[in-house]
Amino acid sequence: MKYASIIVDISHEKLDKPFTYGIPGALENQVTAGTAVEIPFGKGNRLITGYVIDFPEKIDFPEDRIKLIASVLDKNVTMESELISLAFWIRKNYGGTINQALKTVLPVKTKIQEKLQITVCLNQPKEEVKKLLCQIGTKRNMLARVRLLKALLEEPKLSKEYVRGQLHISDSTLNKMEELGLIVLEKSRVWRNPAMAMLGSKKEIHLNEVQRKVFLELLLEYQKEGPKKPQLLFGVTGSGKTEIYLKLIEEVMNQGKQAIVLIPEIALTYQILSRFYERFGDQVGVIHSKMSVGERYDQMLRAEKGDLKVMVGPRSALFTPFTNLGLIVIDEEHDQAYKSEGVPKYHARETAIYRANKQDAMVVLGSATPSLNSFYQCQKGNYKLHQLPVRAGNAQPAKVELVDLRKELREGNRSMFSKRLKDLILDRLEKKEQVILFLNRRGYSRFVSCRNCGEAVMCPHCSVAMTLHRNPFGKERLVCHYCGHEMDLPKECPNCASPFIGGFGTGTQQVEDMVKKQFPMAKVLRMDLDTTKGKEGAIKILEAFAGGEADILIGTQMIVKGHDFPNVTLVGILAADLSLFAPDFMASEKTFDLLTQACGRAGRGRKPGIAVIQTYNPEHYAIVTSKNQDYKSFYKEEIAYRKILKYPPVFQMLSILISGKKEELVNQMAIEVGKSLQVLEGDYLGYQKIGPVDARVAKINDVYRKVIYIKAENHENLLKSRDLAEGVAVEKEEYRKYVSLQFDFSPMGGQ
Ligand code: ADP
Ligand code: ZN
Ligand code: ZN
User: Fold this and answer.
1) Which sign does the torsion angle of CA 134, 139, 140, 146 carry?
2) Is the distance from CB of 173 to CB of 255 less than 8 angstroms?
3) Together in a domain, 632 and 513
4) Does residue 312 lie in a domain region?
């Protein structure tokens, strides 16, 4: 007999206790993951509804005690069914457990108090109140009432928060005044919609000819019956992609369907949200990582009830329980943030395509620098390509210049600003235009090392160098970016006791210091992981800069994504090469993306912009093509290299991470897993195994890490590899106990 794991309540707490039932032969064909079934439950065997989440191979109690599924419920497929089957697919394709997958997909239900908003309203004609004020205005025991009445004369409705917090009126005073009929306390229930305040007026924009053509093509595809190919919208920054999304969503809504719009978290700012609110008002919901669990749940619930028609958010918004989904837009589709870092390591693009297919919806991907994968899929005919080659409106593309830092050095300039960049910054400061300085610091930071023995100060728990930080009072500390371990700066080298140790490398803090020294008249903002920790930290900095509160914004990759600052006419990329030579097959693609996006920040408004790329490798194809803003040439070079070396998207790739605190066991199991995979290798060139080797960071938080990379022509062989590895992992008691195994089916670089 076959078995099914069934949950009877769709909530995170219940997931850990599924019940096992037998599947009667007659129902076998009808029961899939997510199927709603009726099962006999409890002592009285009362029939209740449950959902199938998994199919265990064996059960650990006698077969004659197992109950059978009574029937398959054949009402319309519910949202729960949809989401559970999505989770099942994620588990199958990305690894992890079914519980982890379900927790990713299902909204966290929490009991939350509905927030009541109380408004204090004036309940008498203004003339009456004025008369009253004349009578009581000077009485000392009436001061609070006078204060409130005066405020209400100016603004007849005030929120209770304001009345209590700013006017200092107590509840008892309010109640008394309500009894006297002077005021009314109006109660209304508010949904926690964090961006409701942004409701604005509708600004009519007519699509230009190119946009219109693309829009009509998309619409045609959308109106087709049956499965729809993913559509890639390849349009330079500012070419009006967002306008096209908005128009398409309008059509979707007119048909009574819903849309999901994914945006990288960091680009999820006031600017983009306000455009959606302007268009669609409070039918738009938003999800972002700084929201509380309750706030997120409200949004999901409103979506399920049909109050919302559009959900905008990062990766997790993909699981919005829309029952009549028509469209999924993934903006900046090349962004790394669409790949989940935690288990299950799903990719939002692939998962969106799967979900869309099941619900007859269409996926639109948008980017100025499409992922190599998406462009490759277009070439192969799996996706459909649309292009917007010029900026909408009147903005001109930025002029991009390369500066050869080797030459600067030869000419005696050792500062981090080339002569050209320095001149341009001074010019912009004079003209009161804004500047962005971008430090491409991925995989790179300021560390402390010894001038005598050359060793860097390492984290005692991880195999990475400690990063140097300075707090606002100027005190220096060392912090590990992997485990958070902190220590004071040592006075001497831990390795050879030499006192000559010091900081190396360039961090954003250091750039800030240099800018302040070189351009003392400039007002400077800095944006990186350290300055954006708090709630809305990033948004505050971006808004301050957009509001003209600073002349220069310094930052890491987070400043180059999707923001629109019309007064920025200069972008300086301080060291373009920092990410170029990372041990990562996607290093060139990531560098090209960052540089192109960074250049796209210049000259978004009426004034033309310049971008300056400072580099030690002015001949490298990723640098040259980003200078020319020439994606297609970059693609040609890069795809050739991926083909030769059998990397994605030409081949499929799986990375297997073997980790644990016992170094010996980890090594031993890694070797055994490697051996078990040999059956797939043979002479067949369509399968290639690399490793086991040390992970890029071989130890994190005292956990040792080994990786094996698999490259294969087809996905099937990756799945087989996983099964073989899992076979080894369960073989020995000590492996099961001390070693963990993790799979990544679409690695975005080195582990
Ligand atoms: P993208 O999403 O490709 O970066 P946007 O849709 O944000 O481009 O458009 C860039 C700017 O150009 C925005 O300020 C937008 O309002 C404006 N814009 C877009 N389309 C048009 C149009 N047809 N006419 C005038 N302005 C437009
Ligand atoms: Zn030393
Ligand atoms: Zn550490």
Assistant:
1) negative
2) no
3) yes
4) yes
- Cα(392) to centroid(ligand 1), Å: 5
Ligand closest to CA 458: 3
Nearest to 6 by CA among 28, 24, 33: 33
> Is residue 497 one of the residues assigned to a domain?
yes
Print the domain residue range for 173: 116-189
Question: Which of the listed residues 242, 333, 365, 596 should we mutate to test ligand 1's pocket, taking the one with most ligand atoms within 8 A of CB?
Answer: 242
Return the pLDDT at 428: 94
- Are residues 170 and 217 both part of a single domain? no
DSSP string of 621-641? HHHHHHHTT-HHHHHHHHHHH
If you measure from the C-alpha of residue 209 to the centroid of ligand 1, how many angstroms do you get, rounded to a whole number? 13
Other beta carbons within 10 angstroms of residue 398's beta carbon come to 25
Residue 197, pLDDT score: 44
> In which residue are the tokens 């990544």 written?
744
- Clarify whether residues 606 and 698 are in a common domain: no
- For the CA of 703, the nearest ligand: 3
Which of these three, 170, 189, 208, is where a domain ends? Answer: 189
Q: Which tokens sit at 355?
A: 């979900």
- Same-domain check for residues 361 and 405: no
Q: Residue 75: what pLDDT?
A: 61
Q: What are phi and psi of 439, to 5 degrees?
A: -110, 110
Residue with tokens 């499965």: 227
Three-state DSSP state, 80:
helix
Please tell me the predicted confidence (pLDDT) of residue 220.
Answer: 95
Q: Note the pLDDT of residue 202.
A: 55
Measured from the alpha carbon of residue 499, the closest ligand is 2
- For residues 632 and 698, state if they share a domain: no
Closest-CA residue to 553 (of 567, 347, 497, 107): 567
What was the pLDDT predicted at 664? Answer: 95
Q: Please state the domain count of the chain.
A: 6
- For residue 561, give the CATH number of its domain: 3.40.50.300
Q: Which of 620, 642, 664 is the last residue of a domain?
A: 642
- Nearest CA to 195 out of 136, 283, 134 is that of 283
- Say yes or no: CB of residue 393 within 6 Å of ligand 1: yes
Domain-located, residue 88? yes
Cα(543)–Cα(557) distance, rounded to whole angstroms? 17
Where residue 698 sits, what CATH number does that domain have? 3.30.70.600
Amino acid code (one letter) for 269? T
10-residue mean pLDDT profile of the chain (751 residues): values are 82 70 88 86 84 82 84 74 88 84 78 67 87 80 87 85 85 89 76 45 78 96 91 91 95 95 78 82 84 81 90 93 95 91 89 94 96 96 94 78 88 87 95 90 62 79 76 72 81 86 72 90 85 66 86 85 79 82 79 87 76 90 92 96 89 92 95 93 79 86 92 89 91 91 78 52
Tokens representing 602 are: 């210049």
Q: Which residue has the tokens 């090349």?
A: 334
User: Does 354 share its domain with 215?
Assistant: yes
Helix (H) or strand (E) holding 310: strand 310-313
Residue 110 located in a structural domain: no
The predicted pLDDT at position 191 comes to: 45
Same-domain check for residues 63 and 165? no
DSSP line for 639-687: HHHHHHHT-TTTSEEEEEEEEES-HHHHHHHHHHHHHHTHHHHTT-TTE
Q: Are residues 521 and 459 in the same domain?
A: no
Q: What is the dihedral of CA 268, 270, 275, 277, to 10 degrees?
A: 100
CA of 675 to the centre of ligand 3 (A): 31
> Which residue shows structure tokens 């409130």?
148
Determine if ligand 1 sits within 6 Å of the CB of residue 332. Answer: no
What is the CA 320 to chain-centroid distance, rounded?
A: 15
As a whole number of angstroms, the distance between CA 476 and CA 490 comes to: 10
589 touches 335 (CB < 8 A): no
Locus of tokens 């790739």: 653
Evaluate the CA torsion angle 98, 101, 105, 108 in order and state its sign.
positive
The structure's pTM equals: 0.79
